[in-house]
User: What shape does this take?
Amino acid sequence: MASIFTRIISGEIPCYKIAEDDRFFAFLDISPLAKGHTLVVPKAEVDYIFDIEDEHHKDLWNFAKKVAQALKKAVPCKRIGIAVIGLEVPHAHIHLIPMNKVSDMNFASPKLSFPASEMEETAQKIRSQFV
Assistant: This one.
């Protein structure tokens, strides 16, 4: 059965897309820790990030770097935090989280909720900065 991320990539489940190319896809997390919290995933469904073939793994991080740079320009913050946890969805993914303090990266914190219009506005701001 396809992972939820594969279903998002295929368009079966809607998302707030940030960027994509032929191998990678980035979209806003619908249960974010911070405004702009973005997930970067390979289109190929691989459960564990360290099982990704070396060249593809390197390219995933390069794609994530471009997304992070756009995110930093679009959402005021000190840094973009990075997390790879991979327990909740069996599809490798990188969390990019705008942060101003270390506690902004606490996954035990309550998740935020934003209206759809604000999510789309945030996605648009990030997309406009993506090169």
